[in-house]
Amino acid sequence: xxxxxxxxxxxxxxxxxxxxxxxxxxxxxxxxxxxxxxxxxxxxxxxxxxxxxxxxxxxxxxxxxxxxxxxxxxxxxxxxxxxxxxxxxxxxxxxxxxxxxxxxxxxxxxxxxxxxxxxxxxxxxxxxxxxxxxxxxxxxxxxxxxxxxxxxxxxxxxxxxxxxxxxxxxxxxxxxxxxxxxxxxxxxxxxxxxxxxxxxxxxxxxxxxxxxxxxxxxxxxxxxxxxxxxxxxxxxxxxxxxxxxxxxxxxxxxxxxxxxxxxxxxxxxxxxxxxxxxxxxxxxxxxxxxxxxxxxxxxxxxxxxxxxxxxxxxxxxxxxxxxxxxxxxxxxxxxxxxxxxxxxxxxxxxxxxxxxxxxxxxxxxxxxxxxxxxxxxxxxxxxxxxxxxxxxxxxxxxxxxxxxxxxxxxxxxxxxxxxxxxxxxxxxxxxxxxxxxxxxxxxxx
Length: 445
Description:
The protein is 33% helix and 13% strand. The chain contains 14 helices and 14 strands. 48% of the residues are buried.
């Protein structure tokens, strides 16, 4: 399990840092098609979600074992788990998600999400940007590896801006991979914690001022830096110099903000609350995400790996993967609801794919993107609902399939963002926030 947390079947590690490569094609977009899409787009509705917590289960969770069981299917399909009833009459989920079963009246299960990319890096690029990557799976040329298209978090950051002391876009405890700003630039890059809040000595390094440097001395250093900028190229700097200037500005704002430091201090939470979420990576990241929502953060991306279960799928899901995820998700949704925050906080949990219905020779399940489950809660979504259905083996949707563009367009709609808005790349190529897709009306409350 330790190996799978850091490496997937494509041989790439999630922390691997490579050289940033060149941008590439824009997927056949033309100005007439963009204008037509804008004309036909639904106008942004009222803002329902002020923030979004996006839990990315990297590697691909097994939809047929967690959310869409098929107890009547042959044994080589149904596996070893069985469905249990939830607190919503008529809705059942896997017995490996018992805590979520008790609060199913507070979230929605989509069983008909579908796309055609069965790979890890390229699939995550699709999910987090809504656009095809310019590389084959395993050939990403950077970290983050969305070289051109901005991620959903960066789009939220640009469109909604900052509303508190904390950055508008935070990712933890690792980079999301294709979670960067693309051609938007460093100003809309995520603030990556890059340390795990479950660790006893957890701290956010960028919030610490160097020993021996008080705030007045730090302010003096900042003025000296600003003076040097004015004497030099100043506002005309470009490229890496401009990028580093943006990072310095962000770091200074955080290091000098007591409110920001307080928001990241998960140690201030009562021990009972920390235990409620679970002393796991996904549990403590979810708790910290709630604190950041309270402090005004717009988008929190939680990276949770190890779901690439080609071998021993059932032991992995039952013993290592589902228990902390079940506890974290149920605690997060319940805690937000009890604090009156769920209606204005959108929670999304998904992977880049599901798993194959047929069990392989190693008691595992392989990649399967044609049918998968997505969990939604809060932020203007319906409660206690199941959207869509799959066939007898959870292989394909039997109802309207919803793709990545549909999902992203709906997320932006709930957050009051016009998904058809167009920005030009540095080369002058127009790129809409979402290229196509329709609102998932049955998801919206």
